[in-house]
Amino acid sequence: MSAPDEIITSDHTQLASHFFGELLDSVIMDVASECHRIARLGLDRNLDDEEEELRLSAEARARIADPSNSEANSKYVVDIFGQTHPAVAAEIFDCMNCGRSIVAGRFAPHLEKCMGKGRKARVKATRSSTAAAAHNR
Amino acid sequence: MKIESQVLKKLLTLNGEKERLKELLRERLNECGWKDEMKSFTRKKGRNNVTVDDLVHLITPKGRAAVPDSVKAELLQRIRSFLHSTAL
Fold it and tell me: In angstroms, what separates the C-alpha of B15 from chain A's closest C-alpha?
């Protein structure tokens, strides 16, 4: 006499669930072993640093993307090394062309005049020389 | 039921199906990030003098609950087909 199908199915379901539970426990045991090994050997120290790094990058990106931050605090934005930079570069050094002390942030405009590259500088010289030449005639 | 479950376990072990099923389960749990979840969970709990037993007790409830339904269904289906095919 064979059992009706419903009983067989429910037995099967129970058996299957029970067996699945054992499989899962076995996998959990393996994972626990692995984590234990990693913890005891300190192999996860790098991961902690990496996680921290990822977190900080995400935070920085969020701060940049946030519109309420950009105008008001642009002077105080911090770069990846934790430094802030003023809007105009403040370092002072000597121009290699004329020898004057120049503020780094104003160096390009200075060079334009200093090396005669800009339009205005050369035009001025021409005008005064032609004016002088005209005067002398 | 106890005897039947032991018989099932023996059968599946002998024909290699248990190992295949375990491998399948491991693969699915990796794919869905379950293993990573468990690993980062244990890291958060610190590493001072933990034993394997500690970790097993730590992971088991969370691990059992976190298995995706689809993974569980797939494994159960395979086990049930085996049961059906061997007329247990």
Answer: 15
